[in-house]
Amino acid sequence: MSDRLYIFDTTLRDGEQVPGCQLNTVEKIQVARQLEQLGVDVIEAGFPISSPGDFNSVIEISKAVTWPTICALTRAVQKDIDVAVEALKYAKRKRIHTGIGTSDSHIKYKFNSNREEIIERAVAAVKYARRFVDDVEFYAEDAGRTENEYLARVVEAVVKAGATVVNIPDTTGYCLPAEYGAKIKYLCDHVAGIENAIISTHCHNDLGMATANTMSGVLNGARQAEVTINGIGERAGNTSLEEVAMILKCHKGLDINTNINTTKIYPTSRMVSSLMNMPVQPNKAIVGRNAFAHSSGIHQDGVLKNVQTYEIMDPKDVGIDDNAIVLTARSGRAALKHRLSVNGVDIDGEKLDNVYKEFLKLADKKKEITDDDILILAGADRADLHNIKLEYLQVTTGKGVRSVASIGLSISGEKFEAAATGNGPVDAAIKALKVIIRREMTLKEFTIQAISKGSDDLGKVHMQVEHAGHLYYGFGANTDIVTASVEAYIDCINKFKK
Ligand code: KIV
Ligand code: ZN
After folding, report:
1. Predicted pLDDT of residue 299
2. Considering the entire predicted model, what is its pTM?
3. Whose CA is nearest to atom 8 of ligand 1?
């Protein structure tokens, strides 16, 4: 019988730690439901003690999702575990993920402790968590740089204490694939009682080896892989779910299966990219725009004769629709609905009508509407929930003149107007905005990006604004880049803690 690899998705925990990628609870529920459709076994829904937002998201995801196990992260601290237990109370299947750093540098610099005391704390946390749930995963943070002999002692102790899964994170993305695989094999061979637990991989991509390390771990005995959609995650990210799932599907000889419905991979990738405002690099394996595009003449000729000459996977297997229809001003509601659904966004009724109205306005300005455009339109109504809204913006600008902006805002329904001059249109518009919103705030980062090509393109603006010692991330998209910039600034202000 073939072996089963459990897929543990941490897009909503490790993935969501990326600056600028934070989701609200409604968006997290949308992603969690999509992950359930995709067939992941475990959803790591958050780190409940870290913030009220994370706590609430774990509660709401637990209510919204039926089949996958819902997992909550904790440190090896009783208070963290108590809060995680409370957050998981509605989960049909629940897991607590507790752990502590085990490398010498974590033990010395993070905990000012020693190896024996770390084992005691690890065991105490697992035992405490087991009082509340049957499924307890233990992580040995920085296991990648932990000496194997000591790691085996830690793992043996936590398995004896009741851990059902042991996670061996390469937290810093340092390991070489052979080294990581040997670490997993060492644990399989040297830990008494290891047959009572599942070994999990958790690899970071700092040196571009996350997927290779994960596969090496799996080939040496790990039976759970911790992954994120599009490989998002802190710094260079985590192992990509889509890469592991497709490696196992393509290499049938390995005889290791997952529960992933691979045709849902592309829609899930698009949904996560769009909700997190995190573009997927065009050459990203499996889900990048160019992953199946053959541009050289030799390749095109071969693929036309027989696709197997240059393609190891069928794009349809990952949910890429070959017959993608290009949307234009003449496309109807049904075509828009279909395209959104291919991209993981299912909407109907009034919401579809509203997005369709915006679509027609955009199609008047742009010849061809891309998937990125419609995803932005579908996400734009998030701004409707905002307290502060941009009503109008007029800017005069040009060479040899000082830019002048007049702006109209609605704040909780009340109208405000102001005007200002500045060193360019964005500066003038933001100064006018600041005449109305008199709060201490500083623009820290500002990037403008075109989505595809053409002077009629939508401009996407990402901003970071500092206020009262915190950084806030904002996003705006518009064919007018000055408007997109002001919308991004307003998005930041709307997130200020009151
Ligand atoms: O990378 C890591 O070590 C982690 C743990 C908290 C599981 O994310
Ligand atoms: Zn991690």
Report:
1. 61
2. 0.78
3. 14
